[in-house]
Amino acid sequence: MYDFPASPSVGQIFQKWQWDGTAWVSSGLMGTSTIIDRIYLTGTATWNKPAGLAYAEVEGTAAGGTGAPAINVAAGTWSFGSGGGSGAWGRKMFAAADLPSSVTITVGAATTPPSNGNAAASANTTFGSLITLPGGNGGQQGSNTLTSSNSGAAGASATAAPTGVDIGAPGAPSAYCNVGISAAGSGILMLLGPSGGSPYGEGSQQVAGSGWIGVAGYGYGSGGSPAGGAGAHPLWLGGQGAPGFIRVREFYTWASPVGGEAPQDGGEYTRVNGVWRLKHQSFVPSSTGVIIPVPAAAKHAKIYGRIIWTGTGMQLAMRMSSDGTTFPATASDYVYSGQQLVTGSSGSPIKIALTTAAHIPVTDAAYSDSSSFPVMFDGHIAVNRLSSMAGGFMGSFVGYTYHTAATALAQQTLVTGYNNGGHAGISQLAALQFINIQTGTFLPQSVFAVDWVY
To answer: Quick check: helix, strand or coil at residue 259?
Structure first.
């Protein structure tokens, strides 16, 4: 487990974890599942079952017990106690259907070290009524006896078994403590046995000597160490038990966290407002072009790539569709204008007058007469708009082509165009459904990439 910062602010990042105000949260992918980890460390919080959850693994430990103190007594008198036991631990896998819509998580605190007497048991840690992890029991204080005598103190007892778990164990006891005359009879000696350890934190080690101040438990769930001394010392408190925690690992199938659309092969995903969304994808188009489905909730697309044709004089063109089947292609369905910059021409830049066409051009055909050089392009499309806006969807492209003639070696074409609402099926949509980039015959060395913005 991690040593998370104390008193974090909302949004604070520690390694791969981020504090959301109630838990440290991390996310990742495993095979075809999305995994979100939430670690709850103190107090009470509410876990709400997310949409699309397949199952959840809940694990944790209760806080460890606190060690008994060594009080201030007269010289020549033993004052000592035993260490605290560990908190119970456990793990349970829940199917989503077996979980309520919300669960109250309570991470019980370790007992404050007492100044005298036995240490009380630490509070339980619970996952609603589904899982209960009993808190570690406290150390027992020994009787104050003369250092010339032998004495002892019982260790903290084991806790009750955890309930509601698939696998787990009661909190471990701590060891019995002995004090008295050394074997040679020449000096006083105490053996303070180790406190209870947990799977998430080792108990304190056995200590031999004439004095020991309590040390807090290590990690999570382990017991605090005992304190002991041979009189004439200030109050030495026993060590406080280590804290507990609850960890909820949420597993999602792809069907829901992606936002309704099926996962794209080769796509990269990011979490946007609590939903996994397609962020980037790259692919080799078919020989005649590529049809790109627009993900749900996407607002903008950046489309770029390189094209190599089998012939010459080809033109890269874009069309739009509301269903992925019908792409309007009559002479007045799209409006565009822009300018061209030709490196070898004294007449450039050339202004492209506002005109209508059966597509929005991405590159110009007149300056791509060689299949030996790739055609490059970089474009933007606003794939989402307010339903009250008139007209269609805006797009802007820069295309880079090459020509073998000495007077026009290379060309950059900037085109801004839009669907002008000639087809009601597109103009009435608030968001595009599909984008089609097409032209002649692509070679397999061609590649497209799309970045989506939400």
So the answer is: coil
